[in-house]
UniProtKB/TrEMBL annotation:
A Gene Ontology molecular function term of the record: oxidoreductase activity, acting on the aldehyde or oxo group of donors, NAD or NADP as acceptor
CDD domains referenced in this protein's UniProt entry, alphabetically: ALDH_KGSADH
Designated name of the protein: Aldehyde dehydrogenase (NADP(+))
Cross-referenced InterPro entries: Ald_DH/histidinol_DH, Ald_DH_N, Aldehyde_DH_dom, Aldehyde_DH_Superfamily, ALDH_KGSADH
């Protein structure tokens, strides 16, 4: 069936994805895992060529990009093991129980199945790890869903080169035709997202564009899930004890986190709360000379937006500069920046909240100076919506919970946990570990769905849906729901007879 809203080229893309869906969902987990590893190996084999293209298109350093290719390969290999392990299927078995507390219980078995074709919108600031074959793409393919990637306009040549490497590897691994395809252009991406054959969408980028795409997905005649990673300012709280013990170390870690990748990271610490009159501003100023090298921003549009935000922040009453930084534009309109660290008293932050609290996507961060005796936990909801992370730097005794402010710090941690996806201690939020327990998400506007993560093995669950089989003969059951469990996946079994004892131990 042809869909009139799509061009012939896009119709062919979506039709291939839809046709591939049943066969791809039925692939053996081991075969899907081998395909993911084949892509990982191929990307690392093509690393020199891909990094050269990426550096030219994005302005990011060769060292950063080389590490990002490695991260992308590790993500793919993590999902290969995840697929075979099968824990993500959350296989649950309730055998038939004639003595069930509410009357006879049928045999019920629950697992998860792939959604079907998914479109992933690439990010600009991670041209490998959140782009064509990045974390979202890896999770989509691991889940057994055909993938259509909308390339980012900031690195089109790299997108094509990466897609060629991935397509060749997937085909050589025996994956069905149509399992992976690449398209270009925002209008093309929107048109595909609206097509009824597409079953989910993912995105990493700005709040404005993410909200637009999320609304399109939600307003379709048949709404679909949309997983967007959007904006985050990642507040940091540093105690007086921590500053007294390691001001220089904290200052250097802060500047490293703010300046890395020219500050164009969703996990950059945007605001740091410190005691009024602390030694940290002076330590930051003293360390700044080692972070004075300028770095190119991703593209002229991002550079211009950063210039406007920087001017607005520095022009707000009460704001002063600790590290003035700089931003210049070359003949091509590309922006070159050095880190800017500003400071403002808590009262000035309150008065200028509207101008200050919005994310500055670039190497800029604000130190907020808090008067002694100010409760810290209420500051979190006062100034921030959802964030990807929140951080607390403690002194040694505070980490043991043996100081008079222990209850206040516990309240602060609880306040952060309510509004972020990851709470860090004595570290910095940039450098997200790719590991099974990672949570890279958070309440709006950090993400469009705060129950999900875009990093870690749990990311696969976004692209599956639950289904239960009732009184099914064994021959019709997915392997993970059979009593003999041929795949050896984790199963949660609720034995017959236990329902009459539910809750008894709490009487």
């Amino acid at each position: 069936m042809s869909h009139a809203s799509l061009s012939p080229e896009l119709e062919a893309v979506v039709a291939r994805a839809a046709a591939a869906a049943p066969a791809f969902a039925a692939t053996a987990p081991e075969d899907r895992a081998r395909a993911l590893v084949a892509v990982a190996d191929a990307l690392e084999g093509a690393k020199p060529r891909l990094v050269e293209i990426a550096a030219r298109e994005t302005g990011l350093t060769e060292a950063r990009l080389t590490g990002e290719v490695t991260r992308t390969a590790v993500q793919l290999r993590l999902f290969a093991d995840t697929v075979v392990d099968g824990a993500y299927l959350d296989a649950r078995i309730d055998p038939a129980d004639p003595g069930f507390a509410l009357g006879a219980r049928p045999d019920l078995r629950r697992t998860h199945l792939p959604l079907g074709p998914v479109i992933n919108f690439s990010a600009s600031n991670f041209p490998f790890a959140f782009s064509v074959m990045g974390g979202d793409s890896a999770a989509i393919l691991a889940a057994g869903c055909p993938l259509i990637v909308k390339a980012h306009s900031g690195h089109p040549e790299l997108s094509d080169a990466t897609a060629e490497v991935a397509s060749t590897a997937l085909a050589a691994a025996g994956m069905p035709d149509g399992v992976f395809q690449l398209i270009h252009g925002r209008e093309a991406g929107v048109a595909v997202l609206q097509d009824p054959r597409i079953q989910a969408g993912s995105f990493t980028g700005s709040i404005r564009v993410g909200r637009l795409l999320a609304d399109i997905a939600a307003n379709r005649p048949a709404p679909i899930p949309f997983y967007g990673e959007l904006g985050s300012v990642n507040p940091v709280f540093i105690t007086a004890d921590a500053i007294a013990e390691r001001a220089e170390e904290i200052a250097r870690g802060y500047l490293t986190s703010v300046s890395g990748s020219a500050g164009q990271l969703c996990t950059k610490p945007g605001f740091v709360f410190v005691p009024e009159g602390s030694a940290l501003p002076a330590a930051i100023e003293a360390a700044a000379a080692d972070f004075a090298a300028e770095h190119r921003l991703l593209d002229p549009r991002i550079a211009q937006s950063f210039a406007e935000r920087r001017d607005a922040i520095l022009g707000t009453p009460g704001v002063r500069t600790i590290v003035p930084g700089a931003l210049r534009f070359d003949q091509d309109g590309q922006g070159w920046a050095t880190p800017t660290i500003a400071a403002v008293p808590l009262a000035g932050f309150r008065a200028g909240k509207a101008a200050l609290v919005e994310e500055a996507f670039g190497p800029l961060s604000i130190v907020v100076e808090v008067p002694e005796g100010t409760p810290l936990a209420p500051l979190v909801p006062e100034f921030f919506e959802g964030n990807l992370s929140g951080t607390l730097h403690l002194g040694a005794a505070e980490a043991d919970g043996s100081t008079p402010n222990a209850d206040e710090l516990r309240a602060l941690v609880a306040a952060l946990a309510r509004q972020v996806g990851r709470v860090l201690f004595n570290g910095w939020s940039t450098g997200v570990a790719v590991t099974p327990a990672q949570q890279h998400g958070g309440p709006w506007p950090a993400t469009s769905n705060d129950a999900s993560t875009s990093v870690g093995s749990a990311a696969i669950s976004r692209f599956q849906r639950p289904v239960a089989y009732q009184n099914a003969p064994t021959t019709f059951l997915p392997a993970e729901l059979r009593d003999d469990n041929p795949r050896g996946v984790p199963q949660s079994v609720s034995p017959a007879g236990e329902s009459t004892a539910w809750g008894a131990r709490w009487r």
